[in-house]
Amino acid sequence: MYMKYKSLLVIWGSFFLGPQSLAQVDEVNIYSERKEELIRPLLDKFTTETGIKVNLVTGEGDALIKRLEIEGKDSPADLLLATDVARLYRAKSLELLQPVQSDILVNAIPANFRDGEGYWYGLSLRSRVIVYAKARVRPEQLSTYEAMTKPEWKGKVCVRSSSNPYNQSLVASMIARMGVEATEAWASGLVQNFARTPKGGDRDQIKAVAVGECDIALVNTYYLGGMSHSEVVDEKQAAEKVALFWPNQSDRGAHFNISGAGLTRAAKHQDAAVKLLEFLAGDEAQAWYAEMNFEFPVKSGIAVGETLQQWGNYIADDINLDQLGQYNAEAVRLMDRAGWK
Amino acid sequence: MTTALELKNISVAFDRLRIIDAITFALREGDIGCLLGPSGCGKTTLLRTIAGFESPFEGEVWIRGVRVSDNKHLVPVEQRQVGMVFQDYALFPHMTVKQNIAFGLQDFKGHLREVRIRELVELLEIGEFLNKYPHRLSGGQQQRVALARAIASKPRILLLDEPFASMDITLREQLAKEVRNILKQDGITAVLVSHNQFEAFAMADIVGVINEGRLLQWDTAFNLYHRPATSYVADFVGEGVFLSGSVTGDREVHTELGVITGAMPLGIEQGTTVEVLIRPDDIIHDDQSELTARVTDKAFRGAEFLYTLALGSGTRVLSLVPSHHNHPVNEDIGIRLEIDHLVVFPARG
Amino acid sequence: MSAAVEMLFSATPARTNMARHLYASVLIIVSLVLALPLFAVISSFLIPAPDIWQHLLDTVLKEYILNSLILMLGVASLTLVLGIIPAWLVTMCNFPLSRTLEWALLLPLAIPAYIIAYTYTGILDASGPVQLFIRELTGWQYGEYWFPEVRSIGGAITMLSFVLYPYIYLISRAAFIEQSICALEVARTLGCGPYKTFFRVALPLARPAIIVGLSLVLMETLADYGTVQYFGIATFTTGIFRTWFGLGSSAAAAQLSALLMLFIVVLIYLEYWSRKQQRYHHTSSRYSTLTQKKLRGKYAYFALVLCCLPVLLGFLIPVFFLIKWALLTYPRVINQHFLNMMWNSIMLATCAAVIATVLALFMAYGKRRMSSPLIRIAVNLSGMGYAIPGTVIAVGVMLPFAWLDKLIDGFFRAHFDYSTGLLLSGTLVAVMFAYMARFLAVSLKTVDAGLAKIKPSMDEAGRSIGLNASALIRKVHMPMMRGSLLTAVLLVFVDVLKELPATLILRPFNFNTLAIRAYELANEERLADAACPSLAIVLVAIIPVIYLSRSISMSRPGHDYRP
Fold first, then answer.
1. CA within 20 to 30 Å of C77's CA: A332, B282, B287, C538, which one?
2. Torsion angle, alpha carbons of C534, C536, C541, C544, to 10
């Protein structure tokens, strides 16, 4: 009688198909902040090569972290993929991640693009750079992020909202380098030079420069790449009217953020998950990031496509990325105070 | 007295279906007219045509010497100065009684408005619920408010669409008289639509019987009853049956009940087969009479019985008999004819 | 259960007291369960976040509130104009295309707000086709001419109004149709022209219904995140996410959400008050058929333009550009995966619509027979989720589900030595629950309104001729309620089809919907790629929207009949 009861309940339970309730086939479950379109093809490749199935949920980074947090030790997720180091830092500090020791990962990824203890690894690089209108600005006029506050740029700077994580991490890096006070003064200066209230995404800033609404803008590199290969004619035309400038090349270097991943504390498919991490840091995957989304590979010596080559060589800020996470909240408050909408 | 309302040859159609067919009549200032007819006869459409909600495709409507409708021009409803009381009163539920009444008084200046409202309150005895909302009033109260609202701005003509239809039957005649008194007191010309002849007779000075879109007779209640213009009017107004007979003289008709003689020449050739209208009050119960009929049905009406009697040929007639003459069904009783108004129509078919 | 059904119609309460209590208890429990996400949000006040509050107060809170108020005020005014005027014109007048516009005016309901925002930005911003055309035509440079900025608070008001006005249109049209035409005619005999009649009689009579619609619109406005975020407007909603994601304090974010609920309580009260007024707003049970006035000449053109404008701006133009972009990308985007997403979307929306309507029926009937304040409060609570941003609701759903899962897991470990893990979290059950918490308000309002039309005397009449409860439901209630139930199903269907944040965060692995795909691509600023899934949403949603519109036309009293 008792047994009958039990089997009934188990059958009932299996209707809900929690992924862990079935037999342990080889699989990896991912919570990903990277959009499906920008990760799925790579995961499919992994499945073809290894036979390991990859299950994916995408969403807002912090919402996924919240889900991990609430689900706790029962969470089905094995990997957390984020598009910004602050999210990884936050997951780590909430004790949602566990360290991974892998020689392949350590060898492939430079030390400043991974967590010292192995809690997370950077997988691709995304730089925040200056774009300028070729027709109105000579590259010689540009030098650093700091110089964007000069009076000559009054009413000529476009940048998106301070709610955007890439702006937050840029400001966090400046706090780490220059301290709160100097950074706040910079942010206020930048706000003074705004051509318009921040609005739209990075592509919108590029379009605004192209059309003459402003002369320079802060954007992530891959948006520019995406636009120059766009099927929409006016996006393509806009991309042709602007050029990329690497700031701070004579001092600390341009600001870089990462997209990266970490193994969750609740992971139930650890081996498969680490295998996937290693695959994502491998040559094939690294080239794919560059090819498909114009991100820079985190691994050195990867041949990149024409667009990325055109953008030329750069010096990257080698700040400890942990600090971007540490200063993220401070950066937001600072921008609030500076009136950066 | 001048003419307040005049309809000249009005025809109205919906989707090519003629609802109103060439109706003509006039109403004098201060008179109350009633359009009487069965439901679906077009009387409400005619009323709405007078109000200006419907446009005639033929004919003209004149109000106080101004042409307000013809097939080309239509003076908008709001400029006609007609008041209208709808069957369901259509009080504005979001306004108090006072606001409802004042709604039609927009052209009255503040002081005059108050004066007019006070007049209406007195006339219609609605003072006690002036500040209530319509949903708290009884049907009769709502009706008085609707009337007050409609006559507040002293319309040139008041139109009432079956105003007593949702009233208790026993109240109708009494209310109709009350309303009549109020209208007469205020000197208002009105047109009423009704399917109930008692209501019509109680309220109106002049009544038009309408059937299938045609105005059959426009006359006083007395004449409709005693001198109906068509057999339809005769049938629709009051009770009665048609007895067939043949014309035997200038004023004489021979029927099963004997020879009936009228006061006026009939103007019908001798020998013609005709139908004679026999009202219940035309047949008197008389035990002495040789003429008998068998009681087939009877209805008690307080002071009187309404007997249905079968004549020898099987034809049935009605007779109104004082109620102390209580005869059982199937008894033969003596009757005789006593006709003041001989009404004769050529035989149908 | 059948005892409970019987109870709803029984005239002898004593015999059915048990059933009544059972029904009431179940109703209150269901309401409270559906309100769990809200309690989860409110409970956030237990976690202190004082320094963040100080910071918010010092810097941005004032702006959040101010912008949210401006947004609400703007959207309210614009949707009222865009909704009521066409509703009046197509109900009362006859002009070219008026029969087509009758249903076409609902079409923008099929477009998610964030998609229309992205689309219009693509069309109207400085590098978009419109300004490009102006520059080519005139030879001006950018900045030498004035052009309205889409990504502004005015733009957000406009975008939200384009997709939300159909709620007002829908409800005010139904109200105009139901109005006793006599009241309008009486006003005219009392010397009011058409305009005065509209403003002094028709509009005040429809006001309670319109306020119900307005409260739906304002709740949607408050819950919107996609549009305001893209336009860079700091509202309460963007503030919540900024506090959560940027400042890293989910506690303070939840506290902000709880504050947001204050706005909603005001809205709910407003609606409650207005419904109370409505009860007295039908003194007339006799309907005279609407005779539509035929408009001629310039009036006809004027009406045509007025009614075409919302359809053109809210539907045709954005859809035209979506099609244009979709043509560029469809060979790449449409594949088996895309069809799966479409199926998922339809399946989710259908299930949610049916469940929400059944739940609403259950609650509305309970409220009808047992109008205790406790039940009213419980039911109101369960409808509050409508105005809460989806992501916040989603977190509120996760918390109780995780708790329940742990409870079940513990039970199974103890008794069967078997770990169930997370049984419900991360399944479609959780997603469905979130939809109920968020959209029950929509179906409940619709069903409530339908049920209000069935007078208690009709129940009594039915019982007196010997119908039992189920026959009464079958023969009297269902035929009378069919329209409202259909409306409820269709509205929730369309809402769920467009829903994004809760689905995004709560869904199981490898489960995609059209809305998710459209959002992800649009968020990556790949408008052309986002066009196909967006169009698919519009296409799927358009079928119920047209059906809805038809059924309303048919509900006109005296339809197909002239006196």
1. C538
2. 170
